Amino acid sequence: MKKGILISLAVIISYTTFAQSKCGVAFQDSLNQIISPTWLQRKSNFEYQVQQYTNALKASRIQEYPVIRIPVVVHIIHNTANKSVGGTNNINISEEQILSQIQTLNEDYRRKEGTAGYNTNAVGADMQLEFFLADSTATGESSKGITRHYTTKSGFDIVNELSEITAFSKWNPYKYLNIYVVKSGTTSTAITIGYSGFPFDAYVPGLIPSSQELKEQEIFDGVVVDYRYFGRCCGTISSSFNLGRTTTHEVGHWLGLLHPTGDVRCGTDYCDDTPTIESLNKGLTCNKMISTCNGNTVTNQIENYMDYSPDVCMNLFTNDQKIRTRAVLDLSIRRKTLVNNSTIVPESNTLQASVEPNPVKNNANIKVQFKGTENLTIQLISGNGSILNEYNFNDASSNYFLINTTNYQNGMYFLRVSTSKESKILRMLILK
Ligand SMILES: [Zn+2]
Predict the structure, then answer these.
(1) How many Å lie between the centroid of ligand 1 and the Cα of residue 310?
(2) Alpha-carbon gap, residue 204 to 301, rounded angstroms
(3) Cα of 412 to ligand 1 centre, how many Å?
(4) Are 195 and 29 in contact (CB under 8 A)?
(5) N or C: which end of the chain has fewer CB atoms below 10 A?
(6) What is the pLDDT of residue 208?
């Protein structure tokens, strides 16, 4: 009973303070502190592990990681009785709108020149994460990675009604990133435009959650976004959050990133290259913000995707945010299982190899398929036939193999990909 009263008070305080909230993660965190007696301890244990791992990654000076491709399923929960798709004020959004969101994720998480996700910030990072609509279900049936579900309910409280939302549809979160598109807000609750489950909701080595917590974690692991803030085209899109960055932000949480404030004044997000700030940008402009924390005055990084800025202001993930997500993807068993599942490249009876992308800038991602395991060799060969470098991968399985081409000048090169039985020559153009 006491617990119930506390939760109700927290709800009232939150919803009367903000008519509209960008993201429900901080609010859920405050609820969890009330509901779960072990929440704060579990969180700090998780952070301790992430810090240890992050420090080790930084010490190793690894700058390039394999590109991880994350399969996504988008669940649309709509109240369109005639099931028509797309158009104004239709929660049952079009495939085009969904694809525009997937494209935004890929631009924001790859920081490629000529895309909206590009920046020239000295601490800016290519997160080397890509997202694609799952082309098959866990049982192998072909799929577009989109599910649609009708309900008479007109809107959801997307923080407190997660179990209702996931009851419509849920794909195995060990294999897919589940994204739910709903109408947020009910007659008694305001709009929270996005929400995400944190990886520390998932299993973390050494931290066995209670059976009650385990049950709660099984109910929800994914991202929820209001349909008016999803994607960057085609339907009814918000005027300020109109470029798909709400989902970029929520997927950042799903990967373990925090708000730059750490959700308290001058708190931490455990990243050294995001300045310590007083508050997030809750305004609707990209105006410069200044913070003074512990005597240091800094300019807020309002362009960071994990801030609350309008979409047009945002284009930045930092190097430390990248390293943190890599630590989380390795430490969270649930995320690690998903990554292992998603990066498996199917075997092939004969050697197959291709370079992605081609032309190459600083990294050649080479997809190689063969039977079983092999000691794989990839030679980088100049246009006139000299061997410039050789890369050996022992006991390798079919996979993507990354070669750093930063130190090579523009021009045509060759790659000789060899197993013990076969060899293939690929052409590769380096163009920077
Ligand atoms: Zn957030």
Answers:
(1) 13
(2) 30
(3) 44
(4) no
(5) N
(6) 56
Domains identified in the chain and CATH numbers = 2-326 (3.40.390.10), 352-430 (2.60.40.10)
| Residue 331 three-state SS | helix
Mean pLDDT value across residues 28-33: 80
Please indicate whether residue 374 is annotated as part of the active site: no
C-alpha–C-alpha distance, residues 307 and 282, integer Å: 9
DSSP assigned state of 249: H
Q: What percent of the chain shows pLDDT beyond 70? A: 89
- Per the prediction, the chain carries an average pLDDT of 86
Phi, psi values for residue 296, rounded to 5°? -100, 130
Whole-angstrom Cα distance, residue 182 to residue 24?
14
CA 123–ligand 1 middle distance (angstroms): 21
Question: Cα(314) to centroid of ligand 1, in Å?
Answer: 14
φ/ψ bin of 177: left (φ > 0), alpha (ψ from -120 to 50), beta (otherwise): beta
Residue whose C-alpha is closest to residue 201's, from 35, 51, 12, 73: 35
What phi and psi, each to the nearest 5 degrees, are found at residue 193? Answer: -80, -20
CA of 333 to the centre of ligand 1 (A): 22
8 Å CB contact between 369 and 353: yes
Tens digits of residue pLDDT in 31-61? 777 777 777 877 888 888 899 999 999 988 7
| Residue 136, helix vs strand vs coil | strand
Q: Report how far Cα 213 is from the mean position of its chain's Cα atoms.
A: 23
Extract the tokens encoding 298.
């800094």
Catalytic, out of 107, 161, 213, 250 = 250
Please give the Cα distance from 24 to 99 (Å, whole number). 24
Residue type, 418: S
- Report the pLDDT averaged over residues 362-368: 83
Beta bridge partners of 204: 207
Cα 316 to ligand 1 centre (Å):
15
